[in-house]
Amino acid sequence: PVLVVDFGAQYAQLIARRVREANVYSEIVPHTTPPEEILAKDPAAIILSGGPSSVYAEDAPGLDAAVVTSGVPVFGICYGFQAMSQVLGGQVARTGQREYGETRANISSESSTLFADQPGEQVVWMSHGDAVHAAPAGTKVTASTPGAPVAAFEDDERRLYGVQWHPEVLHTTHGQQVLTNFLRRGAGIDPTWTSGNVVDQLVEEIRETVGEDRVICGLSGGVDSSVAAALVQRAVGDQLTCVFVDHGLLREGEAEQVEKDFVAATGVDLVVVDARERFLSALAGVTDPEQKRKIIGREFIRVFEQAARDVVRAHGGADAEASGDHPVKWLVQGTLYPDVVESGGGAGTANIKSHHNVGGLPDDLQFKLIEPLRTLFKDEVRQVGIELGVPEAIVWRQPFPGPGLGIRIVGEVTADRLAILRRADAIAREELTRAGLDRDIWQCPVVLLADVRSVGVQGDGRTYGHPIVLRPVSSEDAMTADWTRVPYEILARISSRITNEVEDVNRVVLDVTSKPPGTIEWE
Ligand code: XMP
């Protein structure tokens, strides 16, 4: 792999993604990883990330010279560039003057590995206080900016490179090209990380891990569980049983997408549990959002647990079930790489870890956990899904909360209200898709204010109906969000269609609150 050494900025994941966009596999390691451990991974190249620290700071994260001088190609970015310069005997000066945001860099592209065939002036994105004033001996300076006399250096002999700016951010116009040049020309790495290869490799790993055992997987209708299931199906075929709990809180067409389209496209063996009545009764009379979440979560686990026991029994594990020695050994989990990195799980660990009590499953029903997506970023999961023939409607589905429409009815959840909301939501989604806005909008909750009524007039009569709220938001990660400026004509069409076509709804309102202070969902 290409190892991205994380010096504690938020950029390491972005760098790792950009490397993969160049079709090269990458993993993130914390800067505290001992150099022997880094080199033991036999990296094809090492990238040193930026970081919030000054190389002069008391607690500045250290860079061991062994990492830079081992002969492995190295690319330093921002803090990593400075730390690398220092280790190689260059001079880093405390300027005390920050260069921040868009800057113009002067490039000498002639006989440059990083900048070959690129313009002599480029827009780059900077964020630094210190700067390299004298490049390490043996390196060639190929860029400068007003605040950084040495803004890039290259050493083809030792295969050491670096830039002061952030090539991984999109504001840096030639960033991806510079990274790609380092990987291809500097480090001589072949671009073999393609979705076809990724599928082959993961399928191989799953086969090795699972052997002859049986596997169970819970499908939610979302991207991650669907792609994980499709991968395992590709690897071990009918050894996999998928369980889909229909809690009746999905949107129009979503249950059918799983039960029909997904099964037809992937050939998975699917058990559908129709638990719609059960969820409705459990939710009867409940209006508190947290209470709803708890009930939905609890019921889900109970239903899934029963289904899992049935699958175990169906495969002859009745006697062995309680001892944990049943033939269904593995439970598929759709964990992604960012979760692995953020939970400190460390990159590059085995694809699989064992677990005894997953997601509330009881101790006596033991499974080992298989996480086939744990090396992938979300965009890669989508590509793998496409490669495996998972329907596009699932692959490109926007985020949707586990408790589903249950937390989009403000008030008690009833079958009638679900029917109203499902219709209104389908219309909104249809029009947003038709307008080509799906990729601009992170998600658009459609909310029914079930306990609010307002007066309206339709035809010759007075109405007394419910409002529907449209909540289109733009976001990178759902932590913060802004309301999406959907064109008025589209809003007008959605509004008139919903009020005309959905009974009991006589008003459509737009939520113009950012997050914070509002959350994305209303409950
Ligand atoms: P909020 O409303 O907190 O939502 O701004 C942030 C993101 O999380 C989703 N969300 C949930 N997802 N279970 C989930 O699986 C939940 O209980 C839940 N609540 C919110 C929400 O759709 C948004 O993408």
UniProtKB/TrEMBL annotation:
GO cellular component, one term: cytosol
Active site location: 78, 166, 168
EC numbers on record: 6.3.5.2
Pfam families: GATase, GMP_synt_C, NAD_synthase
Residues that hold ATP according to the record: 220-226
Domain GMPS ATP-PPase as annotated: residue spans: 193-397
Subunit structure: Homodimer.
Descriptive protein name: GMP synthase [glutamine-hydrolyzing]
Organism: Ornithinimicrobium humiphilum
Phylogenetic lineage: Bacteria, Bacillati, Actinomycetota, Actinomycetes, Micrococcales
